Amino acid sequence: MKILLPVDGTELSVHETRFALRLVAEGLRASFVLANVQAAASFYEIITAKDPVLIETAAQEAAGDLMAPSARLLADAGVPFETAVITGDPANAMLDLIELHGCDMVLMGSRALGPIRRMMEGGSTSRRLLDESPVPVLLVKPPRPVDPDLEEDAATP
Question: What pLDDT, in 10s, does the model give residues 109-126?
């Protein structure tokens, strides 16, 4: 099974990668397409760069840095993966990657945007993928915040 694993370098992405590795440890035979979607270059960047290769190189380097923590986890676990960097609207880019790489599933996080932010942003990427993806989408909830008071109580004998 080939699974699209979009990451953005956040702790939530690392959490998603660890969840994916847990599935593999439980017996799921899978390879991953570790993906990062970069924002399209702004008009200002296009005008000032004067060389489209500079913009593309910067996007590739930024994506590599953002994917590094998850790539390291997958590599250390010996799980097969490839990387993909794409530019544009995140939901549309991921739909393209699903088709391009022949993915059987998407595993991604859900940030649980509030209703106002969801309206301003035109809906969440995860919601759009749930609605438009030709393959199943597995959403990984963010980890629960740790309550420092409970940790101290648990450590006390």
Answer: 886 554 554 454 455 888
Contact (Cβ atoms closer than 8 angstroms) between residue 100 and residue 66: no
112: alpha, beta or left? (left if phi > 0; alpha if psi -120 to 50): left
Q: Is the pTM of this model over 0.90?
A: no
Long-range residue pairs from 11-17, CB within 8 A, at least 24 positions apart, any chain? 12/109, 12/111, 12/142, 13/66, 13/69, 13/70, 13/109, 14/69, 14/70, 14/73, 15/109, 15/140, 15/142, 15/143, 16/70, 16/107, 16/108, 16/109, 16/140, 17/69, 17/70, 17/73, 17/74
| Strand arrangement, sheet containing 105-109 | 81-87, 31-38, 2-6, 105-109, 137-140
Angle at 67 between CA 81 and CA 58, to 5 degrees: 120
Helix (H) or strand (E) holding 38: strand 31-38
CB count, 10 Å around CB of 25?
10
